[in-house]
Amino acid sequence: MSLTKTKDYDYIFKIVLIGDTCVGKSCILVRFSDDIFNDNYVTTIGVDFRFKTMIVKEKVAKIQIWDTAGEERYRSITTAYYRGAAAILICCDCTNIESFNNVNNWVEEIGKYTDKDTVDKIILMNKCDLEKERKVERSEIEKFEKKSGLKVLEVSAKTGEGIDKAFEYVISNLIDKNEKKDNNTMVLQGSGFLGKQGGCC
What we know:
Blueprint: E1 11-19, H1 25-34, E2 47-56, E3 59-68, H2 75-78, E4 87-93, H3 97-101, H4 103-113, E5 120-126, H5 138-148, E6 151-154, H6 163-179, E7 187-189, E8 192-194
Parallel strand pairs: 1-3, 1-4, 4-5, 5-6
Antiparallel strand pairs: 2-3, 7-8
């Protein structure tokens, strides 16, 4: 299968948001894609998704972001969407210590349904605007990062703080990874090809 050269984008990436229910995955998605926040956002049933285009490192990246339900009863549906993801963002809530403690469980789940050595994994710690209600201390975050080797980025879907920077960080890493590939090598990644504009796409 070939992909004709296009001027619309240099890369297309599939990114999946996972994590416990009520940590703000949908709010992160909508803040990033539409730059709005809704306090009354309903719990996701199954999956939802958005597209957004970003320019990172002078490359145009088209991003397909999937928001998955955190409830156990939807797990058989949502795990199907892990496959083909370039990056999976595990979301937790700095005011909910249990959601942070469950991050390791989500990491294990990623390993069951993806090639854990190729998919990028980043932790998004939401609700950083609620500093007075914080239950996850930064010292605990630092310990987790050292032990797991995973990056934790603090964000706030409500204020927008850190949201764009977090996605820029993820996309930058993905571009770096793909830039190392041969210019003429195409990599099928989920629903899209990841390629370098100077090659075939």
